[in-house]
């Protein structure tokens, strides 16, 4: 959407500590997913994590209330910017990331909250972690609105509901596939 970028925040809880063998499949795929995103059409950027090599963190890492009483101090979450819904959807549901989604039940707890919150920001605006946590909580509490929505109930930056162009998603996924094949070949050898 001209003049805007799509912000995406996801959050979940693993079945065990990040360094555990039960979560090894996730841990091995994580850098490949980040690289696949960087190569994907429509990718603008992502927040890094404090004390982890890579991109700079977009503010202090804040978690939604769903972390409380979980027994964890940290949880898998990401914050990124994309040019459009179709680009993010193509990345999410194809290639390297689709493989991770296929195995997510092995590493992640079932959750009673949305896995992903989407919202529009003005181009040049960088969301911070607190924005993502707040939007995910809002989506959980109020359902999809222009403030926080999902792929199933998307909105335009002007607040009107829209329909995702599935043909464009397929075209972008096809384009991305060419640039990720080497990563996908590695992923297929990894433990689930």
Task: Describe the SSE topology.
Elements: E1 4-11, H1 24-39, E2 43-46, E3 77-82, H2 85-92, H3 95-107, E4 116-122, H4 129-142, H5 166-187
Antiparallel strand pairs: 1-3, 1-4, 2-3
Describe the structure.
- The N and C termini lie far apart (36 Å).
- The longest helix has 22 residues.
- This protein has five helices and four strands; from the N terminus they run βαββααβαα.
- With 192 residues, it is α+β, with helices and mostly antiparallel strands.
- The protein is globular.
- The mean pLDDT is 96.
- It has a four-stranded antiparallel sheet with strand order 2-3-1-4, sandwiched between helices.
Runs in which pLDDT lies below 50 for 5 or more consecutive residues are: none
Can you count the helices?
5
Assembly form of the protein? single chain
% residues in beta strands:
5-15%
Envelope shape: globular
C-alpha-based Rg, rounded = 16 Å
Structure summary, number of beta strands: 4
Run of helices and strands: EHEEHHEHH
Strand order of the largest sheet: 2-3-1-4
Question: What is the helical fraction, as a range of percent?
Answer: 25-40%
| Broad structural category | alpha+beta
Mean pLDDT: 96
**Biggest sheet overview:** 4 strands, antiparallel
The end-to-end span amounts to 36 Å
């Amino acid at each position: 959407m001209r003049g805007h970028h799509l912000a995406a925040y996801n959050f979940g809880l693993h079945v065990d500590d990040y360094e555990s063998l039960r979560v090894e499949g996730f841990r091995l795929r994580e850098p490949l997913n980040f690289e696949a995103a960087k190569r994907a059409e429509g990718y603008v950027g992502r927040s890094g994590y404090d004390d982890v090599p890579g991109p700079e963190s977009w503010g202090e890492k804040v978690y939604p209330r769903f972390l409380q009483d979980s027994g964890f101090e940290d949880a898998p979450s990401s914050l990124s910017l994309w040019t459009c819904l179709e680009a993010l959807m193509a990345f999410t549901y194809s290639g390297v990331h689709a493989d991770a989604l296929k195995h997510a039940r092995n590493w992640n707890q079932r959750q009673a909250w949305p896995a992903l919150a989407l919202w529009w920001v003005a181009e040049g605006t960088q969301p911070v972690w607190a924005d993502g946590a707040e939007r995910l909580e809002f989506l959980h509490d109020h359902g999809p609105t222009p403030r926080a929505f999902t792929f199933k109930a998307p909105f335009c930056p002007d607040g009107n509901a829209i329909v995702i162009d599935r043909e464009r998603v397929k075209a972008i996924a096809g384009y991305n596939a060419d640039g990720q094949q080497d990563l996908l070949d590695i992923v297929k050898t990894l433990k689930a």
